[in-house]
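Page 37, continued from 36.
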């Protein structure tokens, strides 16, 4: 009876330990609700701890992984018959990209599928080392290393995860040793010794005292500078980007974090959308900046040589803009008519529509008409009314664009009848999923 209780404790602690692999993955992939993954983990470990044969455990894992993929990547409807073809497509394209070392095209869905399989194997190793060998150090060291690497090279804050892992590890080591000493035919004088509950509680209390003392002690500053930023910079691993404007969009992807730093202030009667530039060439990995661009110069007080909408309100507004520090580009809203800054001249790029001053600038004024958007007219618009030049500039796609992106776009817009409805459908899809199915 006591042996079964210890086995149950080892099982619960193992679930808690392997769960520390799930939380960073959820954070880095922006998936929602780790509960389903934890349930899968607990079920997977349970079948191994119960000693079920492979012809039972393999089907259970395959079905569980299929259901999880449907929950996370098919709007929570894994039983929808349509998901089977999607699952086959995700698996096939993922294996193709993996075998061709085409890492950029591997989807988040396939990465998640591989993660589920990895958890499956890790659970088997964990149960084998605990039940057969009564040892846990290898899995514990692997978990600590995993969290340490994720904490060091990503935005995931793994400090408390490391603390939890060490605590769980100590408890696992203690109960695994207890089970080992209670195994028959061990060459130990403690083989027949009974270990009352007080013994285990004493160990837990001792660990708690050590942990509390460590947390209460003052922390000393490091003697040497942190080498991690230098290592990340050298290896090109600074993939985490902040939201906002960036002049270099050639390599997109990676984690995003919000940046609430103030960049500029505007004094205006109404809210506006402010733009800096537009880029037209998508490479499949990011936006390319044109090598050659023509600049059209104009002075303060002259008409702005760019019209961004066809219809404007008749009321002109004057906006005062001030950057927090001197800047080498301007922000401006739709309907801008004129820039004003004493003694300044400006340049407008014909390729990017970016406005740059002749010298770094901190404050300026502009006059603008408020653009008028007629939703009815936008719904009635069609591509036939657009010029070939416009279509080539703003709708051109790279030849190497993955087929799965085109298929997903067709799937998202299948119920949309007009270009306006198609654009809104894609907008709603990205807002709801963050594009994780791409």
């Amino acid at each position: 009876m006591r042996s079964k209780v210890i086995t149950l404790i080892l099982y619960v602690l193992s679930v808690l330990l392997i769960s520390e692999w799930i939380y960073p993955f959820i954070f880095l992939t922006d998936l929602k609700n780790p509960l389903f993954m934890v349930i899968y983990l607990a079920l997977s470990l349970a079948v191994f701890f119960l000693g079920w044969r492979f012809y039972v455990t393999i089907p259970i894992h395959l079905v569980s992984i299929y259901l999880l993929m449907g929950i996370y990547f098919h709007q929570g409807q894994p039983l929808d018959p349509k998901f089977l073809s999607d699952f086959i497509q995700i698996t096939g394209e993922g294996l193709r990209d993996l075998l061709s070392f085409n890492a950029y095209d591997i989807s988040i869905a396939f990465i998640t599928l591989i993660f589920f399989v990895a958890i499956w194997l890790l659970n088997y190793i964990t149960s084998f080392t605990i039940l057969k060998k009564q040892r846990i150090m290898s899995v514990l060291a692997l978990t600590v290393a995993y969290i340490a690497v994720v904490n060091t090279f990503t935005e995931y804050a793994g400090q408390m995860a490391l603390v939890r892992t060490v605590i769980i590890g100590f408890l696992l080591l203690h109960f695994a040793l207890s089970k080992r000493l209670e195994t028959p035919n061990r060459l130990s004088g403690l083989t027949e010794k009974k270990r009352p509950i007080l013994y285990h509680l004493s160990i837990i209390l001792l660990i708690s005292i050590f942990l509390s003392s460590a947390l209460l002690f003052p922390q000393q500053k490091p003697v040497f500078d942190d080498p991690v930023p230098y290592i990340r910079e050298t290896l090109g691993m600074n993939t985490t980007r902040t939201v906002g404007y960036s002049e270099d969009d050639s390599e997109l992807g990676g984690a995003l974090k919000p940046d609430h730093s103030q960049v500029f202030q505007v004094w205006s009667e109404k809210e506006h959308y402010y733009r800096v530039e537009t880029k037209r060439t998508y490479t499949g990995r990011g936006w390319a900046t044109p090598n050659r661009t023509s600049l059209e110069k104009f002075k303060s007080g002259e008409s702005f040589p760019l019209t961004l909408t066809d219809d404007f309100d008749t009321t002109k507004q004057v906006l005062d803009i001030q950057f927090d520090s001197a800047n080498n580009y301007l922000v401006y809203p739709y309907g801008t008519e004129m820039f004003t800054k004493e003694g300044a001249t400006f340049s407008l790029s014909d390729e990017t529509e970016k406005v740059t001053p002749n010298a770094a600038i901190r404050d300026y004024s502009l006059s603008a008409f408020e653009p008028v958007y007629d939703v009815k007219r936008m719904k009635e618009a069609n591509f036939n009314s657009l010029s070939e030049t416009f279509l080539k500039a703003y709708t051109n796609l790279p030849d190497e664009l993955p087929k799965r992106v085109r298929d997903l776009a067709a799937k998202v817009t299948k119920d949309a009848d007009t270009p306006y409805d198609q654009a809104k459908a894609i907008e709603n899809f990205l807002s709801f999923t963050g594009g994780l199915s791409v």
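The two ends are 51 Å apart (CA to CA). Flag for discussion at group meeting. Confidence is low (pLDDT under 50) at residues 185-193.
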